[in-house]
Amino acid sequence: MAHDAPQATGPSKLVIRNIGLLLSGALEKPILDADTIVAENGKITAIGRLKDVDTEGATTIVDANGTTVAPGLIDSHVHPVAGDWTPRQNQINWIDSYLHGGVTTMISAGEVHMPGRPRDVVGLKAMAIFAQRAFWTLRPGGVKVHAGAPVIECEMVEDDFKEMAAAGVKLLGEVGLGGVKDGPTARKMVGWARKYGIQSTIHTGGPSIPGSGLIDKDVVLEADTDVVGHINGGHTALPDDQIRCICEGCKRGLELVHNGNERSALFTLRTAREMGDLHRVILGTDAPAGSGVQPLGILRMVSLLSSLGELPAELAFCLATGNTARMRELDCGLIEVGRSADFVLMDKAQHSPGKNILESVQLGDLPGIGMTIIDGIVRTQRSRNTPPAGKVPEVVAK
């Protein structure tokens, strides 16, 4: 079982050289003209050509061998419970498996599968604070899990949000999974959360499991959460006219998930592009769920949106990295000086008809992952879950 991954115990300097393609995660400039990254003590300090950056004193040198380096992928919608175990499917090591799918950061949309999850205000606050504290300390495989997302109930008052924020809670679980299902109550509580720096997400579409219910466009628009959770349904999506109404009626995040309606995801993508709002689109899996866990779920969404949504692959990767980082106010997700040194090193899968990784993704293939790095530390090498890559990076000095 993947427990707390080791952290650097002293000064560290990582050099990644011989990069074939560097994806930035930023829509405004998705490809960078550089072949080397330097990171010190877990933060990016230089990006450029090998001859122009200071590589002296490196404690770890990675030869990318001409592969692609991108920011570590971010899953904007997961449902963790305790450690690297999910009771939803009674499965262990699911977070570690996601790491092998390139995911280095996860955002909780509520610890809703906790057996005996308390619905009373004292209990739900206690569970949120516990989850936030536990995953702040525990890093399964090194993955950063932002957890502690309470499912709000009608009995809550403003001081409850103030108390949770003071204790470190920064997220709300999906509005609509608890007793709050109407627009006016949701809007009031979302306002309290925002006042104290807590970000909110709403369940969108039909019920996903017994106990949840329909949340339609009127509730979504009135609630005005920071993120429209799984706008393509989890699994059942709203009609196209309601999805368009949400896209046009607010300027919040539009989250597309793997465990949703794929046709509706493509419709949302087209709508956002027509509006010039591609920066609002972020990606998640909405797992663990009834359909299981999907270690390659974010990669599959990138491939789906690129191949069937006709979105250039370098932009599709931005939806899974920089867009989410900016929306969620994270210090990762972008290849920029000062950001966390979280990377995924990939190449086109062996025997893909694409001439390179971008063309292969646009043809619908998944890339092969050769390495993941979190906080400047190599966490995995050749993925046990993706197809084998044509080329693989290697640690040449440590």
TrEMBL record:
InterPro entries: Amidohydro-rel, Metal-dep_hydrolase_composite, Metal_Hydrolase, Metallo-dep_Hydrolase. Signal peptide: none annotated. Residues 263-376 form the Amidohydrolase-related domain. It comes from the Bacteria. GO terms for molecular function: hydrolase activity, acting on carbon-nitrogen (but not peptide) bonds. This is Enamidase.
